[in-house]
Amino acid sequence: SSRSRRGSNAIGRHHHHQTPARRMTPAATMGLSSGNIRRGAFILFEGVDRCGKSTQCKLLVQSLQSRGIEAELWRYPDRTTAIGQMIDKYLQSKEDMNDAAIHLL
């Protein structure tokens, strides 16, 4: 389009960055304080219960790992912890809790 990108907001623009997989070797850890280590991406999936978030997350991790890119799957809430179990009970309407309190967890 003839519209200038200068001054436009980030909505609708896509930037594709490729971060190579890295292993933390002793030589690599020596440069930690100098800021030479690039951070990876933290990808978050949101959606209603049972819409397939876990399936998509697993597929993404498998796809990245098959390409040699280091990836790990994190889940929140971790339903094995006491707080995770409280959140789970609230989400399943098994326990009534103050809305403000549940949002602090």
TrEMBL record:
Pinpoint the Thymidylate kinase-like domain residues.
45-105
**Mind telling me what this protein is named?**
Thymidylate kinase-like domain-containing protein
Q: Which PANTHER family match?
A: THYMIDYLATE KINASE
Where is this chain compositionally biased, Basic residues type? 1-20
Q: Which InterPro entries match?
A: P-loop_NTPase, Thymidylate_kin-like_dom
Question: What molecular functions are annotated in GO for this chain?
Answer: dTMP kinase activity; nucleoside diphosphate kinase activity
Do you know which Gene3D superfamilies this protein is assigned to? P-loop containing nucleotide triphosphate hydrolases
Name one process (GO BP) from the record: dTTP biosynthetic process
Region feature Disordered, mapped onto this chain: 1-27
Q: Where is the signal peptide?
A: none
Q: What are the GO cellular component annotations?
A: cytosol; mitochondrion; nucleus
Q: Cite a single Pfam family from the UniProt record.
A: Thymidylate_kin
Family the entry assigns: Belongs to the thymidylate kinase family.
Native organism = Chloropicon primus
